[in-house]
């Protein structure tokens, strides 16, 4: 380690998608870029967000919508965060208790993770429970400002289930999801792997569908840094981007999955059985039928331009904040959100590497043909379409039927 190397303290949450940071540290991708990467494990998104805000961390593994919430003043400690690099796509599962699975299976839920058929069956169960005067089902989310929250809401609403009216949402830290499901505190949850698989392994639940089935190639986690830190450390930020990109490519390689699982299984990181992690890293899940099946888009790191911080992803998350009553729409917010996602930093960092997607602009979701455009294929399960240049129209078309914010407990 050179004495001139810049130390960067980065927070991580014990999830598979912290892998690029872990590998950048463990295999020397960071030190090769002149960065001494010090990883700090946290257990909740609120904690990692707040430690970044007060300067205890230089960078952090964050929920993709979290920097947007910060710059819009939706956090207890508003903070000017920016996103120079993403950490990949996919990675989440929707897992339900055995009791709920039995009910929705009887209502026609598939055993192949199909999002449309799964939510149609769930809607029948929700309606039946309401008719009988039974309590609402309770679903766990990891944070109100999370991709998990917005994709779960999108999926439920597309199936006729209104979050906050027909089902209740509560906040539970990711590592506690399986225990909360087993105890009956929640009836289901949306969380990053390996926690869905862990719940299945513990006998607590069944994986119903995945993020990849709800919104293909959807963003999940990003690296967040403060704008002030970036302004004073742009060279170090670009070095961190390069290290993460190289590490993410290593993580995607099939021949590295066993080694990656072994590293992530160590106590400083996830502290979970290696075999459990390797199954998810190999993009395989236990199906409702009890079989282990391949889910090609389950979790990607650098593949399909997964590390590009596309501004249109940030703008879609903003529309969901508006839709679900977290903030009122203001045309001025659009530019604020665009400034928070910084693809130009990514492009500058990777210019010499000729990285795929580094020179492309964002587009309409879904992108019909990524082969020529080099863009991420964003496909919603219901055929929905998002144009980042027509945000007001999109918000109006997908307005929530609720007059009040979505109900959820916890921080």
Structure, explained:
With 411 residues, the protein is an alpha/beta fold. It has a domain at 6-88 and 221-269 and 304-361: D-Maltodextrin-Binding Protein, domain 2 (3-Layer(aba) Sandwich). Helix content is 40%, strand content 18%. The protein has helices at 19-26, 29-32, 45-53, 66-71, 98-106, 115-131, 147-158, 177-183, 195-201, 211-214, 227-232, 234-252, 257-264, 274-281, 311-323, 331-340, 343-350, 370-373, 391-397, and strands spanning 6-12, 35-41, 59-63, 81-86, 89-90, 92-97, 137-141, 167-171, 188-192, 205-210, 215-216, 221-226, 284-286, 292-294, 299-300, 379-380, 408-409. The strands form five sheets. Strands 10-6-9-7-8-17 form a six-stranded mixed beta sheet, sandwiched between helices. A hairpin with a 5-residue loop joins strand 13 and strand 14 (292-294). Helix 12 (234-252) crosses helix 17 (343-350), helix 13 packs across helix 14 (274-281) and helix 15 crosses helix 16. The protein is globular, with a radius of gyration of 20 Å.
Structural key phrases:
411 residues; alpha/beta; D-Maltodextrin-Binding Protein, domain 2; six-stranded mixed sheet; five-stranded mixed sheet; 19 helices; 17 strands; globular
Total strands:
17
* CATH topology descriptor of the domain at 6-88 and 221-269 and 304-361: D-Maltodextrin-Binding Protein, domain 2
Count of separate DSSP helical elements: 19
Helical content stands at 40-55%
Write the layout of secondary structure elements.
Layout: E1 6-12, H1 19-26, H2 29-32, E2 35-41, H3 45-53, E3 59-63, H4 66-71, E4 81-86, E5 89-90, E6 92-97, H5 98-106, H6 115-131, E7 137-141, H7 147-158, E8 167-171, H8 177-183, E9 188-192, H9 195-201, E10 205-210, H10 211-214, E11 215-216, E12 221-226, H11 227-232, H12 234-252, H13 257-264, H14 274-281, E13 284-286, E14 292-294, E15 299-300, H15 311-323, H16 331-340, H17 343-350, H18 370-373, E16 379-380, H19 391-397, E17 408-409
């Amino acid at each position: 380690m050179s004495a001139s190397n810049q130390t960067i303290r980065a927070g991580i949450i014990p999830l598979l998608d912290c892998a690029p940071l872990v590998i950048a540290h463990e295999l020397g991708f960071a030190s090769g870029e002149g960065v001494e990467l010090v990883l700090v494990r946290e257990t909740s998104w609120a904690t990692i967000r707040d430690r970044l805000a007060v300067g205890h961390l230089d960078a952090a593994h964050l929920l993709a919508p979290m920097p947007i919430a910060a710059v819009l003043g939706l956090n207890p400690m508003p903070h000017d965060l920016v996103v120079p690099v993403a950490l990949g796509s996919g990675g989440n599962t929707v897992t339900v208790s055995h009791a709920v699975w039995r009910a929705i299976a009887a209502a026609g839920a598939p055993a192949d993770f199909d999002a449309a058929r799964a939510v149609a069956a769930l809607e029948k169960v929700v309606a039946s429970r309401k008719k009988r005067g039974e309590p609402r089902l309770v679903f766990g989310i990891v944070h109100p400002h999370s991709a998990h929250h917005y994709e779960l809401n999108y999926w439920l609403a597309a199936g006729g289930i209104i979050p906050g009216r027909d089902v209740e949402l509560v906040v539970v830290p990711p590592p506690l999801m399986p225990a909360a499901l087993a105890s009956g505190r929640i009836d289901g949850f949306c969380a990053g792997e390996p926690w869905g698989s862990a719940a299945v392994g513990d006998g607590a639940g069944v994986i119903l569908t995945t993020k990849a089935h709800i919104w293909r190639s959807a963003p999940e986690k990003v690296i967040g840094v403060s704008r002030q830190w970036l302004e004073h450390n742009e060279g170090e930020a670009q070095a961190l981007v390069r290290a993460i990109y190289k590490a993410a490519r290593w993580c995607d390689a099939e021949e590295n999955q066993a080694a990656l699982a072994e590293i992530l299984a160590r106590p400083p990181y996830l502290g979970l059985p290696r075999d459990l992690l390797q199954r998810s890293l190999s993009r395989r899940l236990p199906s409702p039928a009890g079989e282990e099946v391949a889910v090609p888009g389950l979790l990607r790191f650098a593949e399909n331009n997964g590390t590009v911080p596309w501004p249109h992803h940030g703008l879609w998350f903003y529309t969901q904040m508006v839709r679900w009553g977290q903030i009122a729409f203001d045309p001025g917010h659009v530019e604020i959100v665009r400034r928070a996602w910084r693809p130009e930093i990514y492009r500058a960092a990777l210019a010499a590497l000729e990285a795929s997607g580094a020179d492309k602009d964002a587009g309409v979701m879904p992108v019909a043909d990524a082969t020529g455009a080099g863009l991420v294929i964003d496909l919603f399960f219901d055929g929905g379409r998002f144009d980042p240049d027509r945000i007001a129209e999109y918000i109006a078309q997908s307005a929530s039927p609720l007059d009040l914010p979505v109900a959820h407990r916890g921080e």
